[in-house]
C-alpha cells in the first residue's frame, strides 16, 4: 500500500462490511458524534451539579451523582474510538460539542439549594441518553455488531442511572447498591465483559 | 423491514406506492420506500408522509405524537406542523444557544391512485 494513499482511498474492511449490511455509515457517524458529544457535556455539567449537592441531604446524593458523572466520561471514551474507526471525527472545536450534542445542556437550576431540583435535571439527562442510545442500538442491530455492543453497554448503564434518580426522587425501588468503587462502569469500562 | 412498495408504472420507476390499507390508522408507521425510510400517518380523512429524522438532532419521528395536524418529537418535545414542516414550538429558551436551532421537518406530498398511497421520488 502506498504510504501516500489518501485516508479516504484506503480500503477499510471494518467499514465496508457495515456498509454492505445496508447501514448508511455517514448517518451512523452523525448519530454517534451527537450521542458521544452528549456524554462529554453531561460529564462536564454533572461536575457542577454534583458540587451543588450540598447540606446534610446532599452528602448522600453526591456519591450517586459522582458514579453517573464518571460513567458518562467512560461512555464518551468508549464511543469516541468507534467514531474514528468508522472514519468519522469529533468536532475539532470544543464550542461545537455542546451545539451538536444529542441532549440539552443539563444546567444548574436556579433553586439548586433544593437537591430535588438537581435530581430532576439529572433524571432528564439520563432519559435523553436512554432514548439516544436506544436509537443507536435499533439502527445497528444485526448490521454493525461492534457499535451495537458498545451502545448496548452504555444503554444498560443509562437505564441504571435513570432508575437511581427515580428512586431518589420518587421512592421507586431501583435495586441500587453502591458501585465497587466510584464510577466503576461495570459494562462500559474498557476491558469489562 | 421488507420493501412493500411497488413500482406503480413500469415506465416511471420513480413512483412508489403502498396499498392504503397496509397503513394503519392513527399510527406513525415507518416504511422503506425505494432505499429511503419515510414515516406515514393516516387519519380517517388525511395522509401525511414525513422524514423519519427530526431536523433538530435527528431523532426517530415515528416515536413522536400526532395531534391537531402537528407532530411532537419525543426527544426534546419540538412541535412541527405536519402540513408545512415548520417548527411551531421550541421548548428551550435562548440560554441553549445554537443547540436549540432547528430546520423544517421534511414533508412529502403523497398522491392517492387506485387506493394506493404514492410518492414521486426525486
Ligand atoms: S431531536 Fe427532535 S426535538 Fe430534538
Ligand atoms: Fe452516559
Ligand atoms: Fe448517564
Characterization of the model:
The complex is a heterodimer of chains A (193) and B (122). In chain A, helix 2 runs antiparallel to helix 3, helix 2 (25-51) runs antiparallel to helix 5 (115-140) and helix 3 (55-85) packs antiparallel against helix 6 (145-170). Chain A has helices at 13-20, 25-51, 55-85, 94-100, 115-140, 145-170. Chain A has 193 residues and is an all-alpha fold. In chain A, 37% of the residues are buried. Chain A has six helices and no strands. In chain A, 65% of the residues lie in helices and 0% in strands. The mean pLDDT of chain A is 93. Chain A is elongated and about 60 Å long. Chain B has 122 residues and is an all-beta fold. Chain B has a single domain, classed as Rieske [2Fe-2S] iron-sulphur domain (Rieske Iron-sulfur Protein, 3-layer Sandwich). In chain B, 0% of the residues lie in helices and 42% in strands. Chain B has no helices and twelve strands. In chain B, the strands form three sheets. In chain B, strands 1-2-12-11 form a four-stranded antiparallel β-sheet, with no helix packed on it. Chain B has a four-stranded antiparallel β-sheet with strand order 3-4-5-10, with no helix packed on it. Chain B has a four-stranded antiparallel β-sheet with strand order 6-7-8-9, with no helix packed on it. The radius of gyration of chain B is 15 Å and the shape is elongated. Residues 7-11 of chain B have low confidence and may be disordered. The A-B interface holds A 30-31, 34, 98-102, 104-105, 107, 128, 131-132, 135, 138 and B 57-60, 74-76, 92, 95-99.
Amino acid at each position: 500500500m502506498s504510504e501516500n494513499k489518501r485516508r479516504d482511498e484506503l480500503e477499510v474492511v471494518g467499514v465496508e462490511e457495515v456498509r454492505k449490511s445496508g447501514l448508511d455509515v455517514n448517518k451512523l457517524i452523525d448519530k454517534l458524534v451527537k450521542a458521544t458529544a452528549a456524554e462529554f457535556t453531561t460529564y462536564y455539567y454533572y461536575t457542577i451539579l454534583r458540587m451543588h449537592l450540598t447540606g446534610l441531604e446532599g452528602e448522600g446524593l453526591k456519591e450517586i451523582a459522582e458514579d453517573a458523572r464518571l460513567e458518562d466520561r467512560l461512555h464518551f471514551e468508549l464511543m469516541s474510538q468507534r467514531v474514528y474507526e468508522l472514519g468519522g471525527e469529533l468536532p475539532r472545536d470544543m464550542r461545537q460539542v455542546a451545539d451538536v450534542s444529542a441532549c440539552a445542556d443539563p444546567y444548574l437550576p436556579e433553586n439548586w439549594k433544593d437537591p430535588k431540583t438537581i435530581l430532576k435535571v439529572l433524571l432528564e439527562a439520563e432519559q435523553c441518553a436512554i432514548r439516544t442510545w436506544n436509537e443507536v442500538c435499533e439502527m445497528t442491530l444485526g448490521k454493525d455488531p461492534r457499535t451495537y455492543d458498545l451502545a448496548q453497554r452504555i444503554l444498560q448503564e443509562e437505564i441504571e442511572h435513570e432508575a437511581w434518580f427515580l428512586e431518589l426522587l420518587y421512592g421507586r425501588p431501583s435495586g441500587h447498591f453502591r458501585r465497587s468503587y466510584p464510577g466503576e462502569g461495570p459494562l462500559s469500562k474498557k476491558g469489562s465483559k | 423491514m421488507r420493501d412493500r412498495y411497488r413500482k406503480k408504472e413500469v415506465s416511471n420507476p420513480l413512483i412508489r406506492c403502498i396499498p392504503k390499507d397496509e397503513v394503519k390508522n392513527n399510527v406513525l408507521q415507518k416504511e422503506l420506500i425505494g432505499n429511503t425510510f419515510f414515516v406515514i400517518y393516516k387519519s380517517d380523512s388525511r395522509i401525511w408522509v414525513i422524514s423519519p429524522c427530526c431536523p433538530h438532532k435527528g431523532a426517530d419521528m415515528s416515536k413522536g405524537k400526532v395531534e391537531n395536524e402537528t407532530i411532537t418529537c419525543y426527544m426534546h418535545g419540538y412541535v412541527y406542523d405536519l402540513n408545512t414542516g415548520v417548527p411551531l414550538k421550541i421548548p428551550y429558551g435562548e440560554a441553549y444557544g445554537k443547540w436549540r436551532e432547528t430546520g423544517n421537518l421534511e414533508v412529502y406530498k403523497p398522491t392517492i391512485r387506485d387506493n394506493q398511497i404514492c410518492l414521486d421520488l426525486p
